[in-house]
Amino acid sequence: MTGPPRTRRRRRAPRSDWQLPLLTDWGVSPDRQKLLVVIVSAVAVLAAAAALVIVVVSLGSYTPDRRTGDALSQTNAALPQTFHGWASPKLFEPVADRGKDAKPLTAKEVFAHKTLTGEKKLRLKLVASKLDADCSAALWGEALAEQVTEAECSQAARSLYVSADGRYVGQYTLLNLRDGQAATDLVESLKTLYRGGWTLPLESEKAAFPAGGYTEAGGYALGHYVGLVWIGRADGAEPTAKDDYVSLALALRGAEKPVYQRVVAVTGPGS
Asked: Which end of the chain is more exposed for a tag (fewer CB within 10 A), N or C?
């Protein structure tokens, strides 16, 4: 006697790679699930891209510093390794406004001293000089050029010196700005700005700042003027205990005597 016929169990179709348990329970077919996953993925990618665009826009744009004026041909212009800035002393308040000191600087005035003297028989000889009416011709660095333009810089006087023994090189740059506030702001900005822009070195066969050599700099607000001191050894080496950079900087600051003379011209010799 044969038993009752066996009923064959229906084999379940293998689960599709595109089946999600929750969607399957809801009765969504595998094909529709696949389409839904593709759509959701595309939307996610677009949302991420949009978010990235928003972040980039919020960060602002960046443009590398472009050298201006004479700097276009000086891709290896030397930079000081250190910079210190000082506010204007009260002594220079009479020339805090260019309106009270409107007469432009002259080459005869600012380059009158061919030799500057300092302590320990230090003597600096003038080997090159230049007075520019376009301040951007004496500087490089886009941010620096923009700031001196906003400060209405009308003149830049540069004088290059070498010590009598040939050991040191120094350059003094005097900028003629709108007023004392513009001068103070520039000196303060240069505490960080000097890393991406600085004054251009004058060229001379008698003295030069070695490319990549060690140099130091300082900025001084002098009423509506800014004086920039730049010093270093002629061989580019770092200073040793024998190198008195304080005395060297003070000697180089002898180049700012014309500013003192202008204070006297405004206040009178008896002040």
From this structure: N
